[in-house]
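Customer escalation, tier 2.

The customer says the design service returned an amino acid string that "doesn't look like it belongs to this structure." They asked us to rerun it and document both sides in this ticket. The original structure tokens are below, unchanged.
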């Protein structure tokens, strides 16, 4: 007999609940919000189930099934705090160590060249261009950059799909866990890095929170640490440039779902900032 404990917050549109079983074992159940979302959640379940790294970890999956035509899967409950919540007070040395763990476990050595990558990205950009009716000058400028970018340097690899600071948990025993895997139009570790840059560069996750000097300093250190590690890779300068191009694409992809004025202004400013960084070769 399952016992409901409480609902957990999330941003995936799924129902996330904390439950316990007959042995009082606590676990998390993630359930699709609609029958239309079942396929996407199944893909997320498969991606999380295939994840095999020792560090960062991901919650163990206990089982899956259907409930009233809605797909769900059960997984380990990780007691901890999100990186997003912790970054304002984390020790600098600890922050750098965690960033290095995240980077060193990216599947860079599993990268493969996809000869259709330009076609795939340009199709996505074309779809967005047709979908977005915003005529703001900065949106037009962003599309000009995206449409003419050569995406051939974006290598295909396994990926998390939505590697934001909100989807990284630091457990009570100081282990890193990744949650909320997401299917995406193209799978690449560069897209994962661009998602982290979305938070450490543009501060997207903190857009509705008052400025904080300690947090901003740590975000800057996290970004500079990542940039240094990327630049240490073969062809690192071009890779960093592509990460910012993907970041620009990510920001544009948010536009159709943005309806309040403050968020739109935030996005316009973030898009303009990203374009300027791209113009300067990945530097402010």
């Amino acid at each position: 007999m399952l016992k409901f404990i409480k609902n957990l917050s999330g941003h995936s549109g799924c129902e996330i609940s904390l439950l316990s079983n007959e042995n009082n074992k606590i676990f998390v159940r993630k359930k699709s919000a609609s029958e239309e979302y079942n396929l996407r959640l199944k893909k997320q379940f498969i991606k999380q189930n295939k994840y095999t790294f020792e560090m960062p970890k991901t919650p163990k999956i206990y089982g899956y099934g259907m409930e009233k035509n809605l797909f769900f899967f059960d997984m380990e409950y990780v007691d901890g705090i999100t990186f997003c919540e912790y970054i304002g007070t984390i020790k600098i040395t600890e922050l750098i160590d965690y960033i290095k763990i995240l980077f060193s476990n990216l599947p860079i050595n599993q990268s493969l060249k996809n000869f259709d990558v330009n076609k795939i990205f340009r199709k996505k950009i074309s779809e967005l261009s047709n979908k977005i009716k915003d005529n703001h000058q900065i949106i037009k400028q962003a599309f000009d950059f995206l449409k003419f970018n050569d995406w051939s340097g974006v290598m295909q690899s396994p990926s998390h799909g939505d590697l934001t600071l909100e989807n990284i948990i630091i457990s009570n025993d100081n282990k890193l866990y990744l949650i909320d895997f997401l299917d995406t139009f193209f799978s690449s570790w560069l897209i994962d890095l661009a998602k982290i840059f979305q938070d450490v560069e543009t501060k997207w996750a903190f857009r509705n929170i008052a400025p904080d000097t300690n947090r901003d300093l740590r975000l800057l250190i996290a970004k500079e640490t990542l940039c240094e590690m990327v630049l240490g890779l073969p062809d690192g300068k071009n890779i960093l440039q592509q990460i910012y191009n993907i970041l620009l694409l990510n920001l544009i992809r948010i536009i159709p779902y943005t309806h309040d004025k403050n968020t739109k202004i935030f996005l316009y400013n973030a898009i303009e900032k990203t374009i300027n960084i791209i113009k300067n070769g990945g530097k402010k």
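Tier 2 assessment: The sequence is consistent with the input. Residues 3-77 form a domain with the Phosphorylase Kinase; domain 1 fold (CATH 3.30.200.20). The chain has two domains: 3-77, 81-279. Sent an explanation to the customer and offered a walkthrough call.
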